[in-house]
Predict the 3D structure of the following.
Amino acid sequence: MKKVNNEGRNTALLTADKTDLSFLDEAIDHALQKVRLNLGQFTHAFPDDTTVDGVYKRRKPFLQDQEEGGNFGWTTSFWTGILWLSYELTEDDEYRKAAEVHVESFKKRIIEKVDCEHHDLGFLYTLSCVSAYKLTGNEEAKDAALRAADYLMTRYFEKAGIIQAWGDLNDPAQRGRIIIDCLMNLPLLYWATEVTGHSKYRDAAIAHANNALKCIVREDASTFHTYYFDPETGTPKYGKTHQGFGDDSCWARGQAWGVYGFPLSYAYTKDPAFMEMAEKLANYFLNRTPKDGVAYWDLLFNDGSGEEKDSSASAIAACGLLEMAKWQSEDEGRRYCYHAAVVILKALYEQYSTKDSSDSNALLLHGVYAKPENLGVDEANLWGDYYYLEGLVRLKTEWQPYW
């Protein structure tokens, strides 16, 4: 296995002794106000992946048989997850009832296999249905999530120990391709083993996580977005990007998926290799985060580059840091991860939230979906909103993850 270097912790964060949570209640109140205002439009429909001029509209169909606002694409569950977080914060049944409408939609989606030919079933069913089952004991949600786990397993190449990300499993352009995002889809499989007792789900998740650890992380602790394997033998082939600046750069959101995804595999396996790698990825991310606490869309860029920030990448990283803090073996590491997360979340609220924007129905501005495709650039996006609120919930409560 290649050696992965560790740059060490960000010294500016190491010198801070106090953690300022004075913003927290105000940030949560603001977020809940925005969520409540969206209930009328997005209880029986889903918002699009990103805003247009700061405003979420109903999801645009990309196939002829899809209806506006329908449950398709990979991001719908982030809105449902926001509803479940809001329910946890308030115990207000209005949020629960809206989320349960979505659970029915997700059940129908997996039964009818609507836009399910990708690995993001983990995102979709963890935040919609696993969460519903954990919070309310909803057996229909449990059944839907297990169906999703079974369907996700159809993308697993057992000999190679990988889950293919996208596309037809026989498509030469996609066959054997993983992406770093999939680390966040693995908790659905870990959970499936916990509730069924069948080890196949966990075994697949561990194998995939180990292959990502070995190959998708470079020697300097930066990451590829995507990596190709021979699906028959598991032989590593090469890494590329899809949404980063270049094959050799480090896409910020991808790095953030690693900062969060590896600690989640540690939480289920207690394999120290996952936490050790998470720390290296976190150091790389934080050492390339500008002074205002929020990263650019690719970590190649910094202040003066003229490039856009990606608030969603920093929101994801903050949640990963808070997960890491739970498992740190030494006090300094625990304080470092926690404080870094607070610095990021405070910056997101004070400089990137919609607290001063009454025209926007989003929570967090200045995100980037896919810069190479000019998609959702300098807009809000559903995952940024979700992880921002999850981070605030983690600071406010002893939160039990849906992941």
The two ends are 28 Å apart (CA to CA). Residues 331-352 form the longest helix (22 residues).
